[in-house]
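To close the section, here is one more complete example, presented without commentary so you can practise reading it yourself. The ligand is adenosine-5'-triphosphate.
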Amino acid sequence: MKIGLFFGSFNPIHIGHLIIANFMATRTDLDKVWLVVSPQNPLKPKKTLARDHDRLHLVRLGIGDNPRLQASNIEFGLPKPSYTIDTLTFLKEKYPAHTFALIMGGDNLATLHLWKNYEQILAHYDIYVYKRPAVELGELATHPRVRVCEAPMLDISATYIRDCLNSGKSVRYLVPDPVLEYLESSSMYR
Ligand code: ATP
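Output:
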């Protein structure tokens, strides 16, 4: 199977993430998309970053019964901070039957040349890029491993959702209903 890895802090997951994940899982040659939840970095302030298992739980709630999407906690057990190349190497060893690819926004592609071992990433993995509003893709957009996809762009961020929750505003329709219910019944982000 060809699996697209969509990394994020998902703090919390919102429909912007899910629309991209579902687009990549249904409109490209990817068979599945794994939403890989980044763990808390012990060296970084965690004031606004919810606990790992809460964010993972919300990703699972957001995905619901979509068989093409899956939440992954693979990075929780890896050394921190987790570098993408190390996670890819680990996954390749753990799942030799699968082919892995990366999914990223155009904003990330533009700075990919700063990532640890980025040449190695480009040499071995396909990268599916979705455009972000007003972001130039940069030189790597024409690299043979890079596929630029025309996925719908939504101007929503997890920061905006946290701000709404913190000030008591509704986030209905910005997150899937089961996520909304969980957020409303918990004290997360308040
Ligand atoms: P924050 O506001 O906390 O920085 P975020 O919503 O940007 O969070 P992340 O979990 O950091 O979410 O994002 C995971 C990936 O999803 C990132 O590569 C980010 O660029 C992308 N992403 C975030 N929001 C959207 C959106 N509305 N549409 C498409 N991609 C998005």
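Once you have examined the tokens, check your reading against these statements. The two ends are 40 Å apart (CA to CA). Residues 2-155 form a domain with the Rossmann fold fold (CATH 3.40.50.620).
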